[in-house]
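Objective 1.3, modelling of assemblies. Example input:
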Amino acid sequence: MLQIARTDLNTSVALLKIGGLSLLLPQSEISSLELATDIDTAAPALHSAGWIVYTQKRWPVYCLTHELGLMEVAPAERRACAILAMGAGYLGIMCDDMMIQKNFVAQQYELPLAMRLPNTPILYLVDYEQGIACASNALRLTAYIGQMVLNT
Amino acid sequence: MTRMNAWILDLGIDCKAAVGSRELLHLMAVPTTFSVPCTPAYCHRVVHWQGRLLPVMDIASRLGRTELQAGFIAVVGYQQKRGEYPQFGALQLASPPLQASVGDEQACDLPVNTQGWSKLAIACFDYQGEAVPVLDLNRLFGTSPGPGA
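Predicted structure (tokens):
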């Protein structure tokens, strides 16, 4: 059920700090890191925090709580915006800061079955600093945000 | 007449349950736990234990009662199938568990005031005038929550 997968990640990852949450994403899925001040908050898409220009087009930006709930108004500490590649387009996720770690090695754990809600974007958990980080990827995270936007 | 040893668990105000004596493996006093987003309200934290990361379940909260400010965490073990390697989980407790010897004559119905027990318990016994459900650990920890959890 929930026991340890003893594989190390051994790859480059992006660690997004979102409040008290450490969110781990494959570094290859982060296209850019922009400043939150570059976000256009006028007329945002439904439940989004605004728009960001990347590759000469505007892409929606979402602000998440540390519980991965949606916030339409970003708190001051969300100073950055990670641009996630999703298919042919992009999506912005606001974060407090982001760190790239090359050859990231950490103990990886399955998300326990009793905690695994059907729409969870969390793929697995890893030991990180004195706590844990939650691992996801662009596909799961954008599907989750899409579902939240529809259901909120 | 068969008698079994059990641990009686204090899960919070007016909320007790039991597990078999061999199912309770370790009692931890206020360990550090970590919150995991997008998880059920009754099971949203994990705790490190012997190189594993265990889900921490608040049964009182699962039954719709006030969330427990846990003083203790009980590590429990169970098997999904006989002979299989054991699996582990953790339960929030308000106080340390009590050991009891339970006989067949103590079998009784589940508490009538809480419907949710039928999904969490495999049996129930009378202990000092109180109905104490026996937790189905395999079902508690071995199944994923539904969309409404």
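Chain A has a mean pLDDT of 92.
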